[in-house]
Design a protein that fits this description.
This protein is an alpha+beta fold and about 270 residues long. It has one domain. Helix content is about 25%, strand content about 25%. It has an eight-stranded antiparallel β-barrel. A hairpin with a 3-residue loop joins strand 7 and strand 8. The longest helix is centred in the first third of the chain and has 26 residues.
């Protein structure tokens, strides 16, 4: 761009154009500095705007959970289950497992006390001292990751990562689970449904996220970590650490999911 010397007015206009041109270049430069996989591409369906009645159900559900208190984060409250059923029957985000709204950090508010869950899972969830989160992200390699995070403090946490698969991010390793997970007839790692009972609901396409636990660690501060003491990658355990979550309700604010062990999870977006 060349600005010729002329009148004061034309020089002022030229200066403005030069400033705008510099701003455009700086924005493009900043865009090139942002990691491409920080957020997944918005290729899935958009959210369905929830109605006022649905918003009221969400608010009542949150209020009911709050009234129970943190010490009852793991329970089988009848009213909570009724509200969950009502929300699941409403019109929420279609194809929720690949919706842009599913990605990010979700805080666990409540889960039901299913006896098919592993003793470790029930113990961790029932402890109201520490907040529990679920992160759904895409890493730098383009792999979908579902992480369970227990925050002990600002800098100390337990994080267990699972490789995940959807139609938007398929993973060949995630073949169908074969066994229910009982070891010598005992519920050690949790009991999963399998076979026909485990088939995805065809009336809810793209609602399931399949996963296989891969690794975990206790992160202590920023420089020290301890491996989680479960060998998820051990071939003999690989089938037992496979699972899925079916997203039965999704809005910008709330997600309701049902797991392969019969557990229902209610989470709020951070």
């Amino acid at each position: 761009m060349i600005c010729r010397r002329s009148t004061q007015a034309s020089q002022g206009t030229c200066s403005i154009l030069l400033i705008l041109f510099a701003v455009v270049l700086s924005v493009e430069g900043l865009q090139n500095l942002i990691p491409k996989n920080l957020f997944p591409p918005i290729s899935g369906p958009g959210n369905t705007r929830v109605s006022s009645s649905t918003q009221s159900l969400e608010e009542e559900l949150i209020r009911t959970i709050d009234e129970l208190g943190d010490e009852n984060r793991l329970s089988s409250d009848t009213r909570i289950q009724e509200l969950v059923n009502e929300l699941e029957s409403t019109r929420s985000t279609p194809q929720p497992a690949i919706s842009p709204s599913v990605y990010g950090r979700w805080r666990l508010m409540h889960t039901n006390n299913a006896n098919t869950a592993s003793p470790i899972q029930r113990k961790a969830v029932s402890s109201s001292v520490f907040p529990i989160y679920q992160d759904i992200v895409v890493n730098d390699a383009g792999t979908l990751i579902v992480s369970q995070v227990v925050k002990f403090s600002e800098k100390n946490e337990l994080k267990v990562d699972a490789l995940a698969s959807t139609s938007a991010y398929p993973l060949e390793e995630l073949t169908e689970r074969k066994r229910d997970g009982k070891l010598l007839g005992l519920n050690i790692l949790g009991v999963s449904v399998v076979g026909e009972e485990a088939k995805e609901d065809e009336s809810r396409p793209d609602s399931r996220i399949n996963f296989v636990f891969d690794e975990g660690k206790f992160e202590i501060g920023s420089d020290f970590s301890i491996p989680y003491p479960v060998p998820f990658r051990l071939p003999i355990l690989r089938d037992a650490v496979k699972g899925w979550i079916d997203i039965t309700y999704l809005s910008e604010k709330m997600r309701i999911s049902r797991g392969n062990k019969g557990t229902t999870f209610i989470l709020l977006k951070e």
